[in-house]
C-alpha cells in the first residue's frame, strides 16, 4: 500500500514546464507515476464517456458528476454523437462496498493519447480517484481545451487521509460540509473526521437522549436523517465519515441535559459554569448511559471506526470529588491518568460490543489498553512512533492543524514517517495508517471556514497520498494554486468569501485599497489570537474583523518575497523583477492615503489604521532602498537604522494581523546599506 | 394605486449625502415618501422581531428569512434577550391570499427611531415590501451597524412590475430562477413572466402531451412538481408567476412530438428544419389539442393571467399551404393577420373557460378581440397608448429589454406614462398596469444570466415602483451599486461569475491584467452580436468568450467618464481628478504588455488581442493629452489627427466588444488641442 514508487520525469516537468514546450501538469496530489507522451486529447463538444465492467448507480452518478464538472470547468455543453466511440473509456473490475473499508484498493491507471483516454481500476473507488486526476489534466491551450498525452499509474501512500471538522464550537451546516467533501474528493482524501460534540455544543440528534441537543445546543444540530443523507453523499465521493464524541473531557454540553454524568454537582447551563466539567468514570450509571448512547450512534454511523476523543482531560473535577478520589484509591490506581485508562477500558468494551474499532487522541495511550485501538497523535510525532513500537495503529495530526494559520509549506514538510518514525521497522511503519488535517472551530463560521481549510488542505492531502520523495515546495505551491481555482469552480468559497466580507466592512465604498491591505496580511499564528488573560472566548461574537476575512497565507507576500529573492540573486541587476517590485511598493506606499477615509467610516476597520500606515511606510522604505541600489550608492547608516526600526514596528502583530511583506522589505533595506560602491 | 406622492427632502439627500453628515439612504426602489429623523437605531446582537396582527406560516417564514438575511449582511449572530421588547415590531391587518392578485395592497409604513422600529401594513404583502426596505436601511457606521431614524410611507406606482425570463433558448435551472426571485423581491418586483416554450425547447412537463418535452427538448425541462414548488417559493416572496406558451409562432419545439399541429407537412426535428414552422389555425384538431393543453397548464399555474405570446408570426408556412389560404378566403379574411385574430378569438375562449385572463404581445391587438385581454407592448410605446385608448389593459416591455445590453440609465428613462401615453385620460392611464423587463436567452447560460439581469433590473424596478418624478440618474446609479452588493449577499452571482469565467479563459495565470481589460469593455448593443448573414445561431455553442463574461455596463468606464467631466469642468485644474485619471490611463497604457503572454496562450483570448492593443493606445493618448494640458501648451494638429484616428479605430467593435473609455479619452485629446496658450 505504501511502497514508494519511482517518480518519472514528470515531477521535474511540473516545476519547470512553464518555461518549456512540455505541458505543465497541475496534478494535486502528484500521482505515484506519470509518464508524459506527445500530443494531446482535445476536449470539445463531442466528449463522451463509456463505462464497462462493474458498475452500479453510485458509479453512474459519479460519472455524471464528473461530466457536469468538466462541463462547468470548460464551459462546454457536451453533445456527443450517438454511436461514436467514447472519448474516455472507464473500466472497474469490482464495484463499491456498501461501507467503505480502510485500505480498500484506490489504485487506478489512466492513459491519455491524441485520440482517446482509458481509465481502469480494480475497484470503482479507484475510478473515482482517476476521474479527479482526469479533471485536473484538462487545461486551456492555444487551440482549445485538452488533456495532454500521459500514462499515469497511481495509488495512495497511506490508506487514511482525513480532514477533521469541528462543528461544536461553531455549527457548520450540512451544505457547507458537503462542498468541503467535494473539495476533499478533488484531492483524493478519504476520511471526514466529524468532531460532533465538545463543551460548546452537542450537534447530533439522539433519539434516546434528546436533551443532549435539546439542552446542550443552541438549537443548531444535525437530525439523524440529515446525517444519513450526508454519509451517503460522502460515500458516493469515496469518503468515510468517522464520528467523534469526545469523552470524558470536552463534555460540558452533555451536562445541562444529563448532569448526573458529570463529576461535579451541577446544575449546568450551556453558556455558564466556568469550570470544565468532566464525566464521572466511577459510577455505573455513566456506563449504562454510554451503552445506550454508543449503541445508537454505532447504528447511525456505519464506519468501522469510532473516535472517543479522550484528550485534555482536566482532572480538576476529579480532584475535587472525594468519592472519585476514594474510588481511585480503592482500585489501586496511582492517579487520574489511571482513572482515565480504566474509563477507556470500560468504554472500549462498549465500543467493541458495537463492532467498532476505537480511536482516541494520544492521551489514551496507556499500557492497560489492547493493541486493537488506534492512537491519534496531536501533541507530537513522538507518540505516533511510540504507539507503533508498542503495537498500536496510529494517525498523525500534529503538524496538520489548519487553525494554527501556518503556511502550506510548513504542513507539507511534516511527514508521518519522519522523526522517530523513520527508525521504525517496516512492520512497525505499517501501523502508521496516515493522518488528518484538523479544522478546529474557535474562529470560523460557515462564511469563512472554507478559506481556513483551502487551499492549504491540498498540500496535506498530497503529503498523505503521494510518494515520500515528492517534496518540491515551489512545485507544490504552483499546483496548489491551480487546484485552488478548480475548487472555486466546485462551489467552495475560500476565495469569494473574502470579497463578501471586505464589502461588509466597507459598506458601499470601493474596496480596491482595502483589498491591497488584505492581500499582504496574515492572521497571527498558533494560539496567539487569544490567551487566558482575555477571559473565556465568546463563541457567539461576530467573526467579521479583518483577521476573519483574510487568507491564512498571503499569496501576494509569497510572490513578492520570491521576486525580491530573484532580484537579490541577480546582484540587483534584474530590471524586470525590479520594475515589478517597484509597482508593488508604490501601490503600498500610496495605499494608506486611499484607504484612510474608509478606515474612519466603518467601525470594523478602525483597528486596522496603524497596519495601513505601516504598510505605507514599508512601501516608502523599499522604494528608497531601490533608489540607493539603482545608484549603486550605499544607504547611510542613519537611514538604515531608522528604516529597520520602523520595519521592526511593522513586524509586530496589530489587530491580530501580521504584515507579511516586512521581511522582504527589510532585505532590500539591508542590501541597500551593505553594498559597496 | 398610482397617484404620484410628493417626495420629501430625502431624495436630494440620497444624491448628495456623501458630502454631508446626513445618512445616505441606499433605498432601491426609492419609497414614495421618506422623512429622515435624527439619530439611528443600532443593530447589534440583541436585535429581535415581534409579529402581531394577522400572520401565518408564510409570513413567519418571511420574517425568519429576513432575520437570516440581516444576520448575513451584518455578520452578526443575533442573540436577543428573552422577554426584552422587540427591536422591530411588525403588524399586518390581513394575511396573504392563497393566490396573489394583481393590485393586492402592497403599501406599508416603516418608522425607525433610536430605540426601535415599527412596520405596519394593511396586508402581509406590504410587510414583505417593508422588510426589504428595512434591510436596505441598515448600514455600517463608525460605531456599528445601524438603521437611520426615518419615517417611510410607501406604495407602488404600478401594480404589475415584472421580469420575463426566457428558459427556452437556454435552459435555466430552478435554483438559478430562485435566486433571481430573491433579487426581484429585494427590489419589490412582483411578477415573474416565465417564457416556457419557444422554437428551441419546450420546458414544462405535460402529462397529457408528454412528447412536448420528450421530443421538443434536450431533456432539460421542469417537472410539474418542480413548478409547483417554484410557484410556492415565489409566492412566499410576494411574486406572481405567469406562464407564457408562445403560439402560434415560435413553436418549432411543439412539432417533433406533434407534427399535426404545424402548418407545413413535417416531419420535424428539434435541431433541424430551417423554416420557422407555425401552428395551423384552420384545423379543429389544433383547438382540441389546445383545449386539453391549456386546461392542464391552467391547473398547474394558479395565476389569473395566462400569456399566449402571439408575436412574430411568420406567415410563410401559411402562405405556402393552399388549404390554409383557402380557409382564409372561405372565411372572408383579408390576410394572415385576420387569420391570427381568428386563432386568438378561438384561443381566448379556451383561456377564458379556464378562468384565466389572456395576455399577448402587441401583435394580438385586433379590433375583433374583446377588451378583457391584456396587450403586452414590445415593439414600441405607441401600441401601449393605442391599446389603452381602445379600452385594453396594457403592459410595457419596449425599452426594458435587458438582452440589448443598454446602460441602466437608458432603461431608467423609459416611463410607461411618457410619449403617447402622457396624453391619455386618467381613465385610460389606469389601464396601463405596469411593465416587465425581458431577459431573452439567446446569449445566456445559468452561469452568466445573473449578470445580464442584475443590477440593471433594479433601475427598471424603481421606474415601476417609485413616483414618476424620481428620475435623478446619478442617485439611481449610486443606489443601484449599493443594491448590487446586497444582491451578491443574497446569493446572486452577477459579479462573481465574471471572476470564474475570466479564470477559465486564463487557465492558471494571474487575471489582474485580464480584469483591467474586462473592466472597460461592454458587449455590442442591440442585435449587433448576430446577423442573419452568419446563419442560424448555434444554441448549443459554449458561451465562454470575453463578451459572455463582461458586465453589460462598465462601472469603470462610467466612473472614468465622470472623472474626466469633473476635470474638464474644473478648467483642467483639479489635481485630485487628474491624478486619478493618470492612474487609470497608466494602468491601461501598460496593460497590453502584461496581458500579451496570456493572450497567446489560450484560445479563448486570442480574439481580444487587438482590443488590448487599442486600450494601451488610448492610455498613451490620454496621458500625452494630459501632458499638453499640464504645460498649457496646445497639442499640435498632426498629433491630434493621429490620435483621433486611433480613437476612431478603438471605437469600432472588436470581438463583439466596445471599448467604453474611447469617448472620454477623445475628450481629453480634443481639449488638449483646442486650448489656447
Secondary-structure blueprint:
The structure is a homodimer of 677-residue chains.
Chain A: H1 10-16, E1 33-42, E2 49-53, H2 57-74, E3 88-94, E4 108-112, E5 117-123, H3 124-137, E6 139-141, E7 144-154, E8 160-166, H4 174-186, E9 191-198, E10 201-202, H5 211-214, H6 224-236, E11 240-245, H7 284-300, E12 305-307, H8 316-320, H9 322-330, H10 336-353, E13 357-361, E14 374-377, H11 382-390, E15 393-396, H12 408-412, H13 426-429, E16 432-439, H14 449-453, H15 456-465, H16 473-490, H17 496-506, H18 512-519, E17 521-523, H19 546-549, H20 555-569, H21 575-601, H22 609-630, H23 637-651, E18 657-659, H24 662-674
Parallel strand pairs in A: 2-3, 3-5, 8-9, 8-16, 9-11, 12-13, 13-14, 14-15, 15-16
Antiparallel strand pairs in A: 1-7, 4-5, 4-7, 6-7, 9-10, 17-18
